[in-house]
Fold Alpha-ketoacid dehydrogenase subunit beta.
Amino acid sequence: MAAEKMSLSKAINASLRTALESDPKVLIMGEDVGKLGGVFRVTDGLQKDFGEDRVIDTPLAESGIVGTAIGLALRGYRPVVEIQFDGFVFPAYDQIVTQLAKMHARSLGKVKMPVVIRIPYGGGIGAVEHHSESPEALFAHVAGLKVISPSNASDAYWMLQQAIGSDDPVIYFEPKRRYHDKGEVDTSAIPGPLHAARVVRPGTDLTLAAYGPMVKVALDAAAAAAEEGKSLEVVDLRSMSPIDFDTVQQSVERTGRLVVVHEAPVFLGTGSEIAARITERCFYHLQAPVLRVGGYHAPYPPSRLEDEYLPDLDRVLDAVDRALAY
């Protein structure tokens, strides 16, 4: 089957459709996911085609949604839960970290928890607080959860397929400002490992590691740096728990420098763990300290200040220049 060009949001829709067709135990649940098709129309048309018992409009109660999904998983279903916006997940945080993440270990492996929680996250859409944040590090810190984020349409399709097929709970962060970015999706391909990072642009002078919405910014920075004769390698991390440190290490051993980029605040963000691990692993290869670029340790600002808050091309290139200056 030839690859089809589609937006990231359409790729997620297609992946959900494939899962619903392939397994009658797959259910979709969330606020406005059915008749409305989701606030971003990601689930558009699914309730119409699969019915209200497979694509379920829930009350506005995130804790209840996740708690119900846990009960369904105990009965052999594979629920896919949508949290409407990133900041709305916290009423369900207790259910996720004290129940969903722990059931497998608590039962000594007897109980599986095949639950996917889809969370649109990040800024760039001019929304207010609780609609534009990046809480991925909070979930990556919790043992028992897989935490992933696609940066392109192909990964959006395949990583969701793999998440739904997993017997472990997966937090699937969707970069909402990339929903309309288009790319080739081959639905007949054989995907690589779910948690493997990928070198998406080779380079020799410095490694840029990013995930989700920041991969495009990293690629733009590499293209801009190339015009000045600098060769940057870009690694799409794809997974925040577990993290594929081996691929990052191999890249840094080639380039000698690393800048980690994410939208979330730098303070105690995913980049902190990557910086520490790579410093341990690559101490004798590093020609400069590992630098981090991210959001500020402050509440998400009003939309008029959003461009000042979010990491952009200039902030990434500034970190690149500082690393190359050592």
Notes: Residues 83 and 119 are 5 Å apart (CA to CA).
